[in-house]
Design brief:
Shape: globular
Helix content: 10-25%
Structural class: alpha/beta
Strand order of the largest sheet: 3-2-1-4-5-9-8
Bound molecules: S-adenosylmethionine
Order of helices and strands: HEHEHEEHEEEHEEH
Distance between the termini: 46 Å
Strand content: 15-25%
Number of strands: 9
Number of helices: 6
């Protein structure tokens, strides 16, 4: 993959605010801190990077201290972000979605607990790239639509893909865009093949209740008492 993620970043860096003074950033799945450090270099007031793996966080802390960049790196999984009790102007969620067994829940949690405005998002995608409008509703007898290339879909990887058993779900492009919209993120741009810049929108509570049920706000409150 070459000098990754520098090559990826170079392909969409211009679509991010050049001057980030006054803004806060949460980098979910920050790995060795590449995007966190770039956002701090753009002047972001406060940057928090979280990752589930201590080894990556050690690298991130080392790299940021060598570069003299003040960033908070925390060991935390996406499932616990409600505990941050803070919303961020920019949430970065790059390269994590397809590593999760419950990816849509992750988007719902980000919307419900930490996103204030912008979401920078990336997921591996496979299959169709044909995006079309989705209908408001489909009749029960409508079965052909599931065979069309533009129908939103996600592939489940039972064993392993690309020699990595943590690759669980890989959406096609229409599926990825539908899930972002459904979770309350309006797509403002796709500056690179798999990268989206989205804006958080308020979403109505659906008839079957709020999208994300874990952890319930009450549970978080109780555990902090
Ligand atoms: C493919 S790397 C992406 C790193 C970086 N965001 C990028 O785009 O280059 C996935 C990162 O997500 C972290 N990760 C995986 N599952 C996670 C979870 N449930 N919560 C938080 N981080 C997670 C991994 O430890 C790893 O650092």
């Amino acid at each position: 993959m070459g000098d990754y993620p520098q090559v990826k970043y170079d392909s969409f860096r211009e679509s991010l605010p050049r001057d980030m003074r006054g803004l806060s950033v949460l980098d979910i799945g920050c790995n060795a801190g590449f995007y966190s450090m770039e956002m701090k270099r753009r002047g972001a007031d406060r940057v928090v990077g979280i990752d589930s793996d201590d080894r990556y966080l050690e690298q991130a802390r080392f790299a940021s201290s060598v570069c003299n960049l003040s960033i908070e790196f925390l060991r935390m999984t996406i499932w616990d972000i409600a505990a941050l009790k803070e919303r961020f102007d920019l949430v970065i969620f790059m390269g994590v979605f397809y590593h999760l067994r419950h990816p849509l829940l992750a988007l719902d949690l980000i919307h419900e607990h930490v996103a204030k405005d912008l979401l920078l998002f990336q997921s591996m995608q496979r299959g169709s790239r044909l995006v079309d409008l989705v209908a408001e509703d489909y009749d029960f007898k409508e079965v052909e639509v599931f065979n069309t290339a533009s129908f939103p879909a996600m592939y489940f990887i039972e064993r392993s893909y690309s020699h990595d058993e943590t690759n669980w779900w890989i959406p096609n492009r229409p599926g990825m865009e539908a899930m972002l919209r459904s979770a309350g993120f309006e797509i403002e741009g796709r500056p690179e093949d798999e990268v989206y810049l989205c804006r958080r929108k308020a979403i109505a509570v659906p008839p079957d209740g709020p999208h994300s049920v874990y952890p319930s706000s009450n549970l978080v409150l109780r555990s902090n008492e």
